[in-house]
Design brief:
This protein has 389 residues and is mostly helical. It has 3 domains: 123 residues, no CATH class; 75 residues, no CATH class; 141 residues, no CATH class. Helix content is 52%, strand content 5%. It is built from 15 helices and 8 strands. A two-stranded antiparallel ribbon has the order 1-2. The protein binds zinc ion (2 copies). The site of one zinc ion has 5 residues, from loops.
Length: 389
Amino acid sequence: MAPSHALRCCKRVINWVPAVFINLVVGWSYYAYVVELCVYTITSNAERICYLIIFHIALFLFIWAYWKTIWSKPASPSKAFVLPRAEKELYEQEERAQVQQEILKKVAKNLPIYTRTAGGAVRYCDICQVIKPDRCHHCSTCEMCVLKMDHHCPWVNNCVGFSNYKYFVLFLAYASLYCLVICATVVQYFIKFWTEPNTHAKFHILFLFFVAALFFISVVSLLSYHLWLVGKNRTTIEAFRAPVFANGPDKNGFSLGFSRNVAEVFGDQAKHWFFPVFSALGDGHSFVTRLVHIDPEQANSDTFPSPAASSRSRVNPCSVGGGRSQKHPQATYDALYKQRRRRSRPPLSFHAPGRASNQLFLLRRAVHPSSLPCHIDRGCTAGVQTAPV
Ligand SMILES: [Zn+2]
Ligand SMILES: [Zn+2]
């Protein structure tokens, strides 16, 4: 076995340690609650049954969301984002970075891409050899580019991104619920343990309360942060480093208003919101932005400004549309958004060669400067600053 292969295998095994630890803690908490508390400590049958039912419902939802987060394969860019053979050969033969950028820009013209590097270059992954779609990042742990990457979570040993972000948020919510159920039902026996030394409450119950309370505080904090991110339609990476658009970095560039931001992650049907089933909108390759007035060709042009330049002169969306945008009704954007909802598809289609992204690209093309109401754009000083809810 080659040393590098052995090292990689070791790394993979070590990566599972936090997830195994969580599973062991959950397994122990099950024993402590069901056996030590419900069987040995609680004397009332009604109380015991009631506690066991509530506990098992919370545990089921928690484990379901947790395992879905762990076992959901991160979604990677479709073949449409891979350089065509001819361009790839040219790119690899070329040593001048500027010419390489020209090659990438030429290919990116046909893709629904609106974000760039901080220096204004097309985002390209040399490891995966793909042009990165908006919000896509390379994960060094998973060794792949992940669509709408949020972060790599060691506790689930998986990347949290487009394919499983909803599961991750539900996992945090149901983990909080699980800890809350334990704390709320164990607390009276926890107090008895201190006041009545001869009580049946045991060491397990004392420890169970401490562990559940500790996890509850930390998980609720993380859940609150992610709910805030969902409301803003922002990933953890974007919260720390704003995506760069044609008119510079904009941390709210993907925000469409609270209810639409929530629908982007949880879907638009309430019956799917509380269960770890895939219901996110879109295909992970293309995202509706508040800056949809920018034509991809314009965004890919040589005039893509550097952040420094853009901070000096912001693009005025009203002027980009040449005034024509104001002739179009508010309904245009809503109709296009609904169109995107209808095109929402499960992650199974991620690797369909470019079909989904091409459809969305057509949608983007339809949202040319001239077809948008200017007030959905951030730079328009005449109207509302955010997309309509
Ligand atoms: Zn990559
Ligand atoms: Zn990862």
